[in-house]
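Researcher: I'd like a structural prediction for the single chain below. Treat it as a standalone chain; there are no partners to consider.
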Amino acid sequence: MPSQIPCPDDPALLLKQGLCLNALSKNMKGTLRLNASKEQKCEVPLCKALKTVHLLKLSPVAHRPCDSRLGRPFGGSIVVERLVTVFDQDGHHRGCHAGDFVWTGTAGAQVVGRMSGMTNVGTHRKPVFADCQPCDARGVMEGRICGRVVAAEDPAMKGCQIMGAYRIRFDPSLTGGSGAVTGVLEGVIVCPCRA
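Model: Treating it as a single chain, here is the predicted structure.
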């Protein structure tokens, strides 16, 4: 997997390049398995952290009516072999996570990329949104997923990238959580415009 995962988020590129967007909308189920954990203590600044490594496997399925025709081959599986999370203190506190994924879809589609975000946070809260969750919601991962299509039977997918927002619910624990997960992914397939 390349060390630099592309994400179509350069303002100059978005303005200059001809692009076509197609919706990507998925419901996901899967598993989170803890492979390693280690506590870290620092003197300056004074803190305690928990670092974990998980195996995350997701099975995305189309969420209609939002999933596009080009988005439908992206079913199959998303596998993150090393999802690394750093928690403040322990697995019940806020954390940040990142991991590289391989998304193997149907009809020969494959995407490689990176997911990264926050753990145990609640962004759907007052005063901006309905009071859906507290600011420190446990058992929630949310963030951004970016990748590039490396294989596809559909020639329209050549040179395309994906960018999206995910939200995954898991069973939290002091050691970082494990077990069954469910989630949603909303995003776009970004393709170069060819006349």
